[in-house]
Write a structure and sequence with these properties.
One of its GO terms (biological process) is cell septum assembly. With 260 residues, this protein is of the alpha/beta class. It is built from six helices and twelve strands.
Length: 260
């Protein structure tokens, strides 16, 4: 009997420890189930279309042509604007960048109901072919010419020549400023011939070749003309040397002076 009681002690202790571990495991499982249930309920609540709707727009950026109303109208064209949790910001970015004048859009969500929109506008460098706009990179972009706050040079050329024509204008314009002149129009026609119209109304016919040399020839001629430049209608420089000059009729010039 003494031997039997002695063997029973360790076995009882082992059983108690097993029960304690079992109770602990059940408690831990219950806690995990409770936490999981709470997380599921929270996530389900947050992803519910009736919860946390994105209802406010915070517009940022140095903007002259785009307003918060423009952004709101653009987002309103979406079939559905989701919640803080469900809405994909890349979709909003794509929509924002479709707005006229917008070059780049950065979108992020701010808890609990706000869309923060940072916009960068195109810088209008020139009017292209009379009905489009070029940005500072020579790329066409969507914008209303009538909204321009200041005059822009008018550039013309065949399809796909916008980068070339803008580059030539940038190279030439500083040279004319030395004579207190400015290019108002630069044309590259379908035959690849160049034409310039200056802000004083003089038209320069430059042809296809030796553009820089013909421009230099014009500068020399213009300086020699002195006050007679007021009577010049056009200067044709499409010669190996020299130039031909078209003059306004005296009567027409007098009429213009009277009108002034």
């Amino acid at each position: 009997m003494i031997k039997s009681a002695f063997n029973e002690g360790p076995r009882l202790t082992f059983n108690l420890k097993v029960r304690e571990h079992a109770y602990g495991g059940v408690f831990l499982l219950a806690v995990l189930v409770l936490i999981g249930s709470l997380l599921y309920s929270t996530v389900s609540w947050m992803w519910d279309d009736q919860r946390l709707p994105l209802s406010k727009i915070a517009l940022q950026g140095e903007l002259r042509y785009v307003s918060a109303n423009d952004v709101q109208k653009a987002f309103a064209r979406l079939d559905h604007v989701g919640t803080f949790m469900s809405q994909d910001v890349s979709v909003l970015q794509e929509v924002a960048e479709s707005i006229p004048w917008v070059s780049h859009a950065s979108i992020r969500k701010q808890w609990p109901d706000t869309v923060k929109v940072f916009l960068t506008e195109h810088e209008a460098q020139a009017i292209w072919n009379g009905n489009a706009l070029l940005n500072s990179s020579g790329e066409l972009f969507d914008g209303d010419i009538g909204e321009l706050e200041v005059e822009r040079v008018k550039l013309y050329g065949p399809q796909g020549s916008n980068h070339e024509v803008l580059s030539v204008w940038r190279d030439l314009e500083p040279n004319f400023e030395g004579l207190d002149l400015s290019i108002t129009s630069l044309v590259l026609n379908d035959r690849r011939a160049w034409q310039i119209i200056l802000d004083n109304g003089i038209r320069l016919e430059l042809g296809k070749e030796s553009l820089e040399e013909r421009i230099e020839r014009f500068f020399t001629l213009y300086k020699n003309l002195g006050s007679s430049t007021e009577r010049v209608s056009y200067i044709d420089l499409r010669y190996d040397t020299g130039a031909s000059i078209g003059w306004f009729p005296e009567q027409e010039l007098e009429q213009e002076n009277t009108d002034d």
